[in-house]
Structures are given as C-alpha cells and as structure tokens.
Amino acid sequence: MSDKPKPPARSSSSTASSAGGRVARKPKPTGVLSKIKIIDVLRYVILLIRDLIGGSSWLGSDPKDYVKRLLGVVWPKFTAAMGSPEGVGRGEIFAMLMLSVLRTYLMDTSSTVVRMLTKSVYEKNMDLFFTIGKRALSFALFGAFINAAISYCRERLVVLWRQKLTQEIHRKYFATMNYYYIGTTKKPKAIPDADSTIIREVTSTSTRLVTLVALLIKSLPPIVWFTYKLAAGHGITHAMIPHIYLLLAYEIAQRIFPKNIGILWRSQKAAEGGYHKATKRIQTHSEAIAALDGTETEAAILSNSYKKVTGAAQDLNKASSLHDLVFKVFYTYGCRSWIQSFILYPVLKRTDAATLGGLVSDTSHSSELMIEMLVGNGNLLTLHATAQHMYPSARSLCTLFDTLDELTTQHSHAAVHSLKEAKHIEFKNVNVYTPSGNMLVRDLSFDVTEGNCLLLTGHNGAGKSSIFRCLGGLWPIREGVISKPGANTDGLCADIFYLPQKPYNVLGTLEDQLTYPASGSVKIPRSKLIDLLKQVDLLHLLDDESTNNDDTTNWEERLSLGEQQRLAMARLFYHNPKYAILDECTSAVSQDVEKMLYEECFKRGITYITICHRPALKAYHSTNLHLKGEGSNGGWEVKKLPTPDLTGKSHEIALSTSLEKAGGKKRNPLPKRSFVSKLVQLLRIVLPGSTTKTVMLVASILCRTWMHEVSTVVTGKLLKAAVDRNKDAFVKYAALNAVQDIATAFLEVSVSYMQSSISIQWQDALAKHVQKLFMSNNAYYRIKNIDGRVADPEQRMTQEVQDLSNHLSAVLSKSIQPLANVLWISYRMRQIMSTEQLAPMYMYMMGVSAIVKYFMPDHDTLVRLEQKLEGQFAFVHNRLRNHSESIAFFGGGAREAEIADGYLERLVGQQKVARRKEGFFKALSLCFMKDVEDPSQMVSSSSIFTMFLQLQVALATGASPEVLNFIKHGTTQSIDSFGKLASLYEPLTKFGGASTRVCEMLDAFAQLTPVNEGAKDDRKITFSDVDIVTPTQRTIVSGINCEVNPGKSLLVTGPNGVGKTSFFRVLAGLWEAKGVTKPIGGVSLVPQKLYMVTGTLAAQVMYPKKDVKRTKAMEDAMTKCLDMVGIKRLVSRERKQVLELSKDVLQKLKPLKGDLEQGCRVQVQIDGTGVVLRGGNSACEAAVKLITEQGGEPVKVVENEAAGLDKVEQWEHVLSLGEQQRLGIARILYHSPAFAVLDECTDAVSVDVEKDLYTQINKNGTTCITISKRLALPEFHSQQLQLGTTVSPHWTLTDIDNSVDSDN
Fold first, then answer.
1. What is the CA radius of gyration of the chain?
2. Between 835-855 and 961-982, two packed helices, what is the crossing angle to 10 degrees?
3. Considering only Cβ atoms within 10 Å of each terminal Cβ, which end of the chain, N or C, has fewer?
C-alpha cells in the first residue's frame, strides 16, 4: 500500500485540462474568520504548495480553479525520464529553488559583512574596511551571478511553459478537425477567434503562471530564515512585529483597494481584441469595402472600436493608480518610516557606552533583516493578487481546452453512427443540414462506384459543397448513412482527394505542395518531380532553387490562380487516389488544361465527382446529380449521361493567354531608416498635444527627486537625534519622516499615473495617425493587394503599435528620472564633498557605462527577429482559420500541426537564444550595478563603493553621522541612476527594433500614390481601348472598347479567371487603367458573397452610408426594400426586451455589461431604471438568466417586442447565402444608383426569384452590369461582353437578342 498522498476526490471525467465533471468545493469559513482577508492569502498559499507537491493530479482537482488547472498542464513530472516532455521545466524550477535558498544564505551572510563595513566607516578604520571589503566583493559578484541565474531561469521557464501550453492546445486543436469545428459549431461553444487566444492569451498567461511559482520560491526561504534570525538575535517579539504590521496593513488596504481592477483589465483586453478584430475584418474584406466606397463608414467603426481601447486603458490606469497609492502608503513607504524609527529606538534608549559604529551597524543589520522579511511577505501577497487578476485569462484558456475536448468527444461519437467503411461512395437517405439547422437537401440517395464519374450541378447555395462537407465528416449527418473509403479518418482519406476552386497551398517547399497532406519529411525523386511539373507545364518553378527549398514560402502570393490550379492537379497525380472531388478546380485554366485533367484521371483510373455550373463538362461524366435548391424543399434529381469517350490522347497544353501573359513589376524596397530618423519620425506624430502632460510629468519627477533628498535629510536628522539621545527631536523627525514618506508615495503615484497617461495618449496619437493613413486612398486595400511590401499591416498597426508606444514611454520614464537624480544629487553632494572626493564616483559610473555598452547584446536584431517569428506564427494560425475547410477536406490536420509546431519551435529557439544572451549580460551588469528591480539589501559592488566614499569623507573631514548618511544615500542614488541611464541602451535598442516594422509601414503608406480614376461622365460608362493589367503587371485583357448607356444593361461573361471581376476592379478604380470614363456618382456593387458590415440590420441596407439617426420615412423605405426582395421577415426575427431592476442590481451589472454582450451575444443598454436587451430569443433568455443570477433577485420584463431594424447580429453567419444575396439587392433598391455591378450575386436563388429581383432593379431605374459565367437573363440586358475567347484579342462585344430564352 503506497503512502503517497492522494489528490482530493473529483469526477473521473475531469482532467487537468477538462472540466467534464464537477466536484464539491470546500465551503468557505464563516463567522469572524471569514472577514479576515489574510486568511484567504494564507489558505491559498498553503493549498498551492500542497498541490504543487502533489503534481498535476492535485492541481487539476477543482475544475473551477482555472489557474491551478493551467498549472496542472505545465507543471513538470519530477520523476519523468530525462528528455521526456513531461519533465519540461523541471531543471529550471529546481535551479530556482536551490538558487533562492543559496540567495537567502548569501543575503544573511552579506548582511553581516555589510554590518562590519558600516562599522568600519563610522569608526574610520580603513584597514578593517579593506579586510572585510575583499570578502564583501566576492559575495557581491557571487550574488550578481545568483540573481542573474534566477532571472534567466524564470524567463526561460516562461518560454518553455508557453511552448508546453501551446503544444497541448495544438494536440487538442488538430484532433478530429477541431480547428474547423471550433469556429463553425453552434453558439455558445463556437470560439471564432481561437487563433487569437492561442497567439495572445497563452503568452501573457504563461508569464503570470511563472510569476506565481517564482514568487513562491523566492519568498519562503527569506521569510522563514530571517524570522528565525531576528527571533534568535532580538527576541520573538522583535521578529513578529513586522509580520503583524504587514497583516494589519493588508487588512486595511484590502478594504480600500479598488475592487474592479480585474474587470477593467478584462474590459481592456476585450476592447483590444475588438480593435484587432475590426482591423482584420477590414483587411479581409478590403476589396469589397473599397469597391462599395465604404471607407468612411469603416473608418468610423474602426475609430469607435479604438476609442473603447483608449477608454478602457484610461479607466484601468485610474484604478491601478489608486491601487498603487494604497500599496505604497501602507506597504512601501509606510513600512519604511516606522521600521527606521523602530530600529533606531534602541539607540535612543541605550544606557551602555557602545561605540557609534557598533550602534549604527547593528541598526543597519536589523533593518536589512526586517526588510528582507517584509519583501518576502509582500511577494506572497503579490502572488495571491496575481492569481486573482489572471483568473479571466485563465478561464478563457480553460474554456478553449474544455470546448476542444467536448468537440473531440462529440464528433468521434457522431462519426461512428453516420459514416460506414466501404470501397465505394454512397449516400443513403441522407438529409443535408447546415450546422445552424437549415435543411439544404432532403433524403439524398446516390452512389459512385469506380469508373462511374458524377457531375454535380445546381446554383450556389443549393448544397453542392455541403454534400461533400458531409462526406468529409465536416458536418454532422442527422438522418441517413454515408458509405465511403476511410470512414474512420479525418476529412477525405488517401483514397478520396479534393481539388477546390481556390487551391490550398501549404506553407513550405515546392515538394510540400505536391506531397500535402503527407508529412514534410516525405521527398519526391527528382525525375518524378520533373515529370509531374512538366505534365502541368510548371517546369519553370524549378528555376528558383532558393525559393523552392524554403519551407516558409507563401505560394499563394508567388503563383497566379491558374498556376495554383495546375499545381493542384500535379498534387492529384502524385497521390493518385481512387476518387477525386473536383470543385470547379479548372475555372482559371484553358480548355486544353481542363481536358488534360479529365483524360489523365481516366488514364490513371481515378473516379471523379465534379462540382460545376457549365453544361460543357457533361461530356466527361456518366451521371448528373442536379440540386434544385431554393424553393424546392431540398429537391434533387439524377440523370444518366452518355458514356464519355476519354480514350483519346491529350493535346499539348496551351496556356490561356488571357491569364498567363507575364509581366513583372519590381517594387522599390522600403527605405532603411537610422535610429535617429525613426525616433524623429515617431516623435513628430506623438508629441503634438502632449506637451502639457509632458511638462507636468517632468515637474513631478523633479519634485520627487527633491522629496528623496528631503527623505535623506530627515533620516539623517533622525539618526542624529537617536545618537544624541534627544527624545523630542527623535519624535519630531520620526513624525516628519512618516509625513514626507506619504507625500513621496503620492508623488510617485502621480508620476506613474502621468507616465501611463502619456503612454496612452502617444499610443492614441500613433494609432489614429496609422488609421488615417490606412483608411486614406483605399490604402487598406492597396497596401497588401497592390503594393505588397507590407504583408501584415493589421499585425503592425495593432499589437506592434501598442508595443512601440510602450517602449517609447518607457524610454522617456527611464531617462528623465535618473537624469534628474544625477544632476540634482551631484549638485548637492558638490556642496559637502570636494572635486577630488567626487571624482572616483564619476569615474566609476563612466567606467560601468562603457562596460555595459560594450557587452550589451544587439537588442535591435533580437527584437526584430522575435517579432518576425511571432508574426509568422500568428500568420500560420490566421491562415489555418481562413483555410480550415480546405484543410479539413484534405485531412491535413496532422501536417498543419507539424507546420504550426515547427514555427513554434523556431520562435521558442530564438527566444531561448535571446534569453541566454540577456541573462549573460545581466550577470555581467550586476557585477557593477545593483539590480534596481530587486528590493533586497544584498551587498553589491556599488554599495561597497558607496561605503568607500563615505569612509574617505569621514577620514578627510570627520563628517557627522548625518552627513555620512546623506553621502550614503546620495551616492547610492547617483550610482543607481547612472546605472539606469547606462541600461537605457537596452530599452533604446528594443525601441529601435520595435520601431523598424512600424516605420516601414508608415513609409509604405506614404509612398502610395492615388489611383487615377479616369474621366467622369454623368450619363454613361465608356471603355476606350482599355488594357486590364494586374498589379503585378500581368495583362489579362487588351484593348477593350465598350459603352454602357442608361437603360442599356451589359452582361459580362466568360469562365473564371479570364478577367470578369478585374473588369469591375478597373471600373471601381481599384486598379489603374487608361481610357475609362465613369459616371460622376460612381458604380455600386453587389458581389456574390455580400460584405456584411458590423452593426444593425438597418446598417446592412444603408451601407456604405452610416447608420445614423433615422427618420420614419427612411425606415419605411428600408422595410419596403426588404419586402421587395422577399426577406421582410428579418425585421421581426429578433427581439427587444426591457427589464426593470433595482438600483443595487444595476450597479452590479454595469461592470459586467461587456461580459453580457460577449457571452450571451446580445446588445445591452443600461440606464437609471433598467436594462434594454436586443438579440435573438435564446440569447435574450440566456441574458435574463445570467442577470437574475448576478443580481440575486427576480427580473421583471416590462417590454418584450421585436427589435426590428435595430437588431445587431453577425449577419454573415446568421443569414443563408440566398438571404445575403437578396439583402444585397435590397441595398441597391434603397440607394437607387444609376449603375450597379451584379457580380454573380443571384446564383444562390432560384431562377424565378432571380427574374423577380432583376425586374425590381429595372423598375428602380438602375442600369446593370451583370457578371456571369454564362448568358443569363438576356431579356434584362442589351449587350454581351464575352471575355476569354480563343481568338485574339480574347474578347467580343455583341448585341443581345432579347427574344432569346435564357434557359436554353
């Protein structure tokens, strides 16, 4: 029977990272104990120690304790084998523990040494000083190594725990296609921004988890040891008084501390996340926004989103400043003043003839021991506060873990019942539903055997791709059974391959594009690689060996769509599966290439299922499954086709001239700015408007410097009064010392508050400047899609602008204070010391500065490399989210996990290198300077040098204790301040590294020139000999001549990739072209996938105009337009509820407003009498339930009605594609433009609905330019511009005979 302690009982279904079960939590104590705050701290620390000793099983015992659950994930198993992942971090924790014990011993020993040095100074004994000084110097150097080693272990542990947490998320994230399900599953389980959580939350949480452990390890040894030493030397009363004071101070402070810091911190993070999301949204939909002329509206949304960030930061700054004030008054300064009086009191009351040196050294020694005890106690209090403050971020990560576990269980069970293993593909009585529950296809039954190729047709939104989402296991099957090869694998197995219209190109080498989704270790023989590329005419890709072998190459940027589709064909031929799903995968290639694909599949024995719109492809198939779509109640039909003849030999591939006409515009590289140039550029942006605050900050810093001198003088007077046994003077200066300490606390908090305010203002100024450039001249579209030199503007203008502002304000704060100290103290010390006596101090400071600068690592390069790798890792996850469906179809989860882990490994490797270099530099710098972040009194080289100066002055002038005390504090502050100035090299170089990418973005914005939009005409659109050329100088179509007059609609046709949408890009002014004349009022656009702006239903109709105050006439017009397109029902789909609540409940709810809106997906408005909810029925019900729980009293619903046009939703997820397309037409009807481009925007509705929509547009007086793959609805058009014809110039313009029936 093992004696090993067992963890607390818990549900067997609960794990360290899963809250599957729930356990009974220990009841909190009641009565008097429940009111004592320190009891909570002691209980938490004791239980934390117990759980850390017990390991991960103990740490994960309470599923509601999110902090300990995460500790359970990262905490190492100390009995694990060497090199085992379970033991990661074990060495660092053990080293920190041993070093902390050693550090405590060294602090104790060095305190004795300092005591002897102090005695030698006051007794003016140079021989004793040098004898003890040698020993003290060895302790100082050893202490420097220990402090640097502890810091290095802590920073390295942050990196390792971040890696471990991320890898654990990756393990769950890539299991059973969870990366796809987590963004598409039903609310509230859906986490659409999981990539953001992985990238940002894990980093901050890992840092805080390490801080918890580091504080615990660092605190316990000095608390235990120095309490024992004080008790042994001065009695138990002397030892316990500091503890009692701190406990009493904590009880008082906890009742004054602001209680909403955690909520405010969470609000700030939510606001930052919203701003990041808004920026990414604009970048993702940049073409639609620019084409719709929605810049002004999107700029307002982005600005409002950032205002929330600024407001939240200011609120948090105020609360944090109040917290710091209470902390400094009750702990830092309040503690300092009474300790000095308490320690000096025995000197005042002495009756023996002890020497002055002995008295001062004894008091100094006792003071150091007390300070070390109090620092340890303070660390434990900080530990508890840190655990409380990180609760929201820990809960967010645990929610992600729980959701991933639930998705794994849910989809593993679902697949067992609905997917059956077979050698063929068969659907039997399958009802195809969307994840939201809308039925697309009813009772579908068909089979595909080897050699029997299927053509799947139907308009967009009918369910073609949805059928294969079910086949791949992406969507659950509620009724029916699907049989297929590889039923037990994720996605489509090796026997079924998928080729989408927009190919997915994995980040990696050229070989990786063909072997995907196989592991990156799989290699292709050179001869086979050449044959595959030759077959699809891509041999030229082998020319650039450096790019081909670079595993970070982004092939989507390097290749045209046609080249990507041909490379996807080569991938198909490499894998040679039994079945292939061809989802319009030949839309951007020539007919010769298309024919080659089908003949090669026939030759290789690949049975294919093709999704397409074009009847011409029937020649390659034996069966046609047609989905009837909207209005058919999920109807479908199967028709047999003539047996295809694919035995002929394929012709040589003739590339489509309209697509592959190469050009190549080499863009000028961005300028390389010097450090000074970057600093000046940024200061010009941030300084205007902050002058007053900056002057106030400098004045406060100068006042604080003066107050430090006052403190030094008062402390010296207090010492003198104690030595002279002057009780009245002692009481007077003890009181004055306490008063000036409180005043210093106020000054320091004021400085900190103003510094943070300036940082917020500078960030605000820089962010607004970037936003202005970003939203000017369609820069948000052109910077990435046309210019191309800045691939990640959304990353740079959000996180990196914030980091840069913090670096800039840190440089300001770390330079003004020490500079003021050095100048002022030097002036004051010059009054009591000669130049010869001060010279050694300045020589010491300059020598240290030179050494520090010489050995400082290249932070500029280190920061830039780390930021680059952080950006690449973020890009991998953002790309994974955007392509999750294609990856899931391929079953590429394992390969994507390999890629993500690879990028994480590179990032971690670079961080380890950076932390190692920084650790070495810190060890070196601490040999000469005291660690300004370490409040301990451990002996240092600078403190030894300070006492040497004291001794010199004492020997030369016979200075009094008061003067010697001033010299001690003045020299210490001067050396520390000079050390801070010397250490400015680090934040300056970090600032230089952080500023490089932001300044590059600013330069790229500045170099964007406005697009020449051509001439204006208020009557018609004219193309006169227009060449349509891509931003990379590929000529798509040459010499177009056409004219569109009012009432004479134009139909633009041709297969995908021949320039139809590019025709509109030129017309909209997105691409530059000569010879285009456009109407003065511009041209409206309705794309196939409508862009849905963030906001109300009314905002969707009014876009690109802002949803401002609306009149009843405007609302009636919008409702009428929605009725005309058949979706008036949307106006009453959501509800508005008014709740009547008491004032107490309202006060409780105000800080929770953001949580309610985010958690329940409702819009919340709180006023003086109640709460107004707007959202879906279930969302409102969930919000009412939560409000009842939080308020503790029943909720009275006084109004319950439809929210109408005011409802807010994520409309792109709520509406079907058909509803979105109808809404796009409603937008056109509401604005009544003279001309509108309809880019395949009615292919998700039935033919009858399509005709009705065009009829409404015609009645509205709008002339259409319709983009379509085929001749559709000729009765509504006067002429046809056909692109991609085989005969030069590859386009034709013909009049349309309106008597032609479009169905034929």
1. 36
2. 30
3. N
